[in-house]
Design brief:
The complex is a heterodimer. Chain A is of the alpha/beta class. Chain A has two domains: 201 residues, Rossmann fold (3-Layer(aba) Sandwich), CATH 3.40.50; 85 residues, Alpha-Beta Plaits, CATH 3.30.70. Chain A is 33% helix and 30% strand. In chain A, the strands form three sheets. A six-stranded mixed β-sheet of chain A has the order 5-6-7-3-8-9, sandwiched between helices. In chain A, helix 2 packs across helix 3. The radius of gyration of chain A is 24 Å and the shape is elongated. Chain B has one domain. By secondary structure, chain B is an all-alpha fold. Classes of the chains: A alpha/beta, B mainly alpha. At the A-B interface, helix 2 of A face helix 1 and helix 4 of B.
Amino acid sequence: MELRTDIAPIAIDIKNLSKTYPGRVALSDISFSVKKGSVHGFLGPNGAGKSTTMKILSGLIRESSGEFKISGKIGFLPEHPPVYPNMTVADYLEFVFAIYAPASQNKRAAVKDVMEKTGLSNVSDRLIGNLSKGYQQRVGIAQALVHSPEIIILDEPTVGLDPVAIADIRSLITKLKKDHTIIFSTHQLHDVELLCSDITLINHGKIVVSGPLEQILENLKTRMTIQARVVNFTPDDKAAMMKRFQLESLQFKFDEEKKNFLLEIIAAAPESLKKDLSHFLAADSIGLLEFSEVRLDLEELFKQMVH
Amino acid sequence: MYMQKILILVKKELKDSFLSPLIYILTGLFCFMMGWLFFNYLLQAKNLTSATMTQAVITPIFGNINFIFVFLCPLITMRSFAEERKQATLDLLLRSELSEMQIIIGKFISNMVLVFFMLSFTFVFPLILAFSGYSDWGVVGSSYLGIILSVMAYLSVGLFCSSLTDNQIVASLLTFCILLGSMLMVISANATDNYLLALIIQYMTIPFHYEGFVKGVLRSYSLVYFSSYLCFFFLLTLKSLQARKW
């Protein structure tokens, strides 16, 4: 599914990117773009290709084919923050600054500034190994920021953190979005809804949908997801429904506990289809027990599109 | 600018190493063994002439220093890349303004500084001999040069093996196996009847080239050998790091 993107300067433009390993395709011909100044959510189940894409963008691995353009310096936080446990926070950030911006003379000022931004000023003299996971994650974000990149790529910045730490990271990203383009991968769909202006959904190495979040959610409203319980249901019933109602998909399974069939129907169709479907399922041979429409939010979209 | 970037890494590596107890344990062990050996060689020397001192003390003590470093160098280099891989900081270095070769050279220089630190405690040996009138400083100088060149070769092997794994023990064992194999090739050279083959095998072993330095003989082909050895393993390490991007 491709959606029109606003005409705004592009920070990252990916075209037909692929990455293959022996016996496995990690990315298959993906294309999407990230607008300058946006917060771009990068979603997908485990093993979908998010980390591979981010590592290619940050230069850690080479693509097999395709191209991408990046306008600006990149700061990257991988899934495991690359920190030295035996260094103090200040020494570590000074070292990172020195190897990422060796020509610059503003080391102390840059480090002080980034420590203030990330709330690390009060732990600057502590060994990183002695900090909590939440603070280590902040140090990881700080190393991505210290050399003043235009674009920040965060690979699952909230994984393994407690709710308070997640909230801290969320407010940090909110602060950062004023001056940076941010692309981050996460499983916290609530964060995506709160923070992101655009999203890209990836599954099995292919782009499922990419574009402005509002537009994606708006398009979902023209699609219905209906859950129903019936007494009997056969593959012939499924074939008949698919043909008659032009459904997008229909999944059914037998519920061992309740001894009936659970149906999940997805259709891009007008409201009147609900009435037609319920009449069909109410037939004696099928026996309708329950019928409800599932609200389409981002979580439902995630579940459906990666099913 | 090229060296400046390398020195940033060297400074950080040295700070890390000297804050770790490992270097002090290894240095203590090294000083104890060398001191004990030197003391025994000194006692065994009968007549205090320069020739006797060179044969009875200098040659064997430097032979032992070289041999001990075959065991110590794997321990010095094992964490160079293996620990970086384990704590996910190798990617931090590879994404930086440092090239792969600058990273390799930086780690190599920091390991050499650690070796110099350990070796500096042996400077007391020729000083002690000087008090008894020993004056064959050419042999002492060439012996130290031989040690330095041998250790550079050992460290280059250690860096390569460290870049292959994220397990420090595996890295040190792999290094030790390669170095020991290189030493044992001398036996193969002695065992063969083919003179030319024996010469070729001998030329490929470190002890053959080191021997000349301890005798006070500086052979240009030995300098070529050690340079080639270093370049070969640096290249292998470079390819090992570049392979992470494939």
